[in-house]
Amino acid sequence: MVVEFKIFAKTRFGKHFFLSRSVEGRTARAFTTEDMRGKEGLALTRLNPSGRVEIEGHTYEAQTRDGYLEAGTAITVISQDNFKLIIKQS
Fold first, then answer.
1. How many domains does the chain have?
2. Can you give the CATH number for the domain in which 48 is found?
3. What is the 3-state secondary structure (H, E, C) of 34-79?
4. 14, 38, 75, 82: which could form a disulfide with 87 (CB 3.0–4.6 Å)?
């Protein structure tokens, strides 16, 4: 099986299936190292159920457990999940 891939990679058709050079990049770091639970802010966009919120002058991606929230709604952070804040209406 490995031999087949090595031979296939050298064909004209195979060259379109495999990368011709390495990919450079990096992953996004966690957006905050501090505990955000209990902090309050405002919804910048409509959350249906995801959107953007502002807390202490910083913008974050967030998801609500309360369904839909309109922009300008006061929110409270209840937890963090990877790169999103989980919020509820204040």
1. 1
2. 2.40.50.140
3. CCCCCCEEEECCCECCEEEEEECCEEEEEEECCCCECCCCEEEEEE
4. 75
Greatest alpha-carbon pair distance for the chain in Å reads 62
pLDDT in 10s for each residue of the chain, 90 residues: 666 767 777 788 777 777 667 777 765 444 555 788 999 999 999 999 999 999 999 899 999 988 899 999 999 999 988 888 999 999
How far is Cα 33 from Cα 35, in angstroms, rounded to an integer? 7
- Asked if 77 and 66 touch (Cβ cutoff 8 Å), the reply is no
Q: pTM value? A: 0.62
Which tokens is 59 given? 């913008």
In a domain, 77, yes or no: yes
Residue with tokens 């919804």: 43
